[in-house]
Amino acid sequence: QEVVSEESEEESNGVNLMEFSDEILLHILSYVPCTDLVLNVRRTCRKLATLCLDKSLTHTVLLQKDYKVDKDKVKQLMRDIGKEIYQLNMAGCYWLPSSTIDHVTRCKNLVKLNLSGCHVTSLRLSKMLSTLQHLRSLAIDVNPGFDASQLSSECKATLSRVSELKQTLYTPSYGVVPCCTSLEKLLLYFEILDRSREGFMLSGQLMVGESNVPHYQNLRIFYARLAPGYVNQEVVRLYLAVLSDRTPENLHAFLISAPGSFAETGATKNLLDSMARNVRLDALQLPKAWINGSGLLQHLKFNNPFYFSFSRCTLSGGHLIQRVINGGKDLKSLTSLNLSGCVHCLAPESLFRKAEDDIDSSILESLVVSCCNLRHLNLSAAHHHSSESIGNHLCQLLSRLKHLLSLALPVCSITDVAASVEKPPTTPNLVPQTFGRKVRIGIQTYPKNLGDQANQKIESSVFWALMGSLRFLETLEIIGSSFSSAMPRNEPAIRNSLPPCVRAQSVGDSEVAAISQLTYLQSLTLAQLPNILTGSGLVSIGLQCQHLRTLSLANLGMMGKVVYMSALMDMLKHCKCLRDLRLEQPYFCAGAQFFQALSHCSSLQRLCIVSRSGTLQSDAVMSFMASCLEVIMCHMFMGESLTVCKNLQQSIVRSFQAERPALNVVIFPLLHEDLTEVIRDVPMRHLDEITLFKSRVAEEPPNLWW
Question: Domain map of the chain by residue range?
Answer without folding.
Answer: 300-386, 405-414+463-488+498-690
